[in-house]
């Protein structure tokens, strides 16, 4: 606890993941996006439904994202891909979250959304949650040159959005591979996950639980 308190006292900005981080995974938003990614890959790569998950896994392992593999091997239009996979009814799946809004309002630091989704999707999610005014910028997949997390270059671009060194930046995400990559660059990682077994990173079951750790910080009111 002492170590994380010391680290938190040094941060000057926070990168927040979007989907399954700012809201619970049970809302189903990312599940629906994933289903649409499957549909797109089946059509674009000409694979059947039984093979699509393995192909996506291979693309993610090699390129960080499914889109990276589609661009490399199938000359996919990234704009068309992002428009298709994010064409979901976000507004009927998410509701304003006063607790999240109050938590973010207490953080007197620059806050940036860092997502492998599109900026337009991020804006819709933030609006549905009622928290869009709390973020300085959105660093989306386009802003990282379609690299995305967990590529080191993507993290460094996101950190540059805040204008801080990695060691003064906190990163909050629900994917272990992403928080591991952030930690490797000296970024202070937080994993949002119900099951915290198998990680040494600070882990919370929901993002607002970070208030317990932020209490007493000069930037948390």
Regions with little confidence, pLDDT below 50 for 5+ residues: none
Helix content: 40-55%
Cα radius of gyration in angstroms: 17 Å
CATH class of the largest domain: Alpha Beta
Q: Cα distance, first to last residue?
A: 20 Å
Mean pLDDT across residues: 94
Please identify which CATH superfamily of the largest domain we are dealing with.
HAD superfamily/HAD-like
Count of β-strands: 6
**Strand order of the main beta sheet, please?**
3-2-1-4-5-6
Structural class: alpha/beta
Largest sheet: 6 strands, parallel
| 3D shape | globular
Q: In CATH terms, what is the architecture of the largest domain?
A: 3-Layer(aba) Sandwich
Number of helices: 11
Write the SSE topology.
Blueprint: H1 2-10, E1 13-16, H2 29-45, H3 52-63, H4 66-74, H5 78-85, H6 90-93, H7 98-106, E2 111-114, H8 119-129, E3 137-139, H9 152-162, E4 169-173, H10 176-184, E5 188-192, E6 202-204, H11 211-214
Parallel strand pairs: 1-2, 1-4, 2-3, 4-5, 5-6
Helix pairs in contact: 3-4
């Amino acid at each position: 606890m002492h170590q994380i308190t010391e680290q938190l006292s040094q941060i000057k900005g926070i990168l927040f993941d979007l989907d399954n981080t700012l809201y619970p995974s049970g809302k189903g938003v990312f599940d629906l996006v994933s289903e649409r990614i499957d549909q797109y890959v089946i059509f674009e790569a000409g694979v059947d439904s039984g093979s699509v998950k393995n192909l996506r896994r291979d693309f993610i392992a090699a390129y960080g994202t499914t889109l990276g593999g589609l661009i490399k091997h199938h000359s996919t239009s990234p704009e068309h891909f992002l428009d298709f996979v994010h064409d979901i009814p976000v507004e009927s799946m998410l509701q304003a979250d006063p607790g999240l809004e109050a938590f973010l309002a207490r953080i007197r630091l620059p806050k940036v959304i860092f997502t492998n989704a599109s900026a337009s999707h991020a804006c819709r999610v933030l609006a549905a949650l009622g928290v869009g005014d709390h973020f300085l910028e959105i660093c989306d997949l386009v802003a990282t040159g379609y690299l995305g997390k967990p590529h080191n270059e993507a993290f460094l671009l996101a950190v540059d959005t805040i204008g801080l060194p990695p060691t003064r930046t906190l990163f909050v995400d629900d994917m272990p591979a992403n928080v591991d990559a952030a930690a490797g660059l000296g970024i202070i990682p937080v994993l949002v996950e119900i099951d915290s077994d198998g990680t040494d990173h600070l882990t919370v079951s929901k993002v607002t639980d970070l208030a317990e750790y932020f209490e007493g910080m000069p930037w948390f009111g």
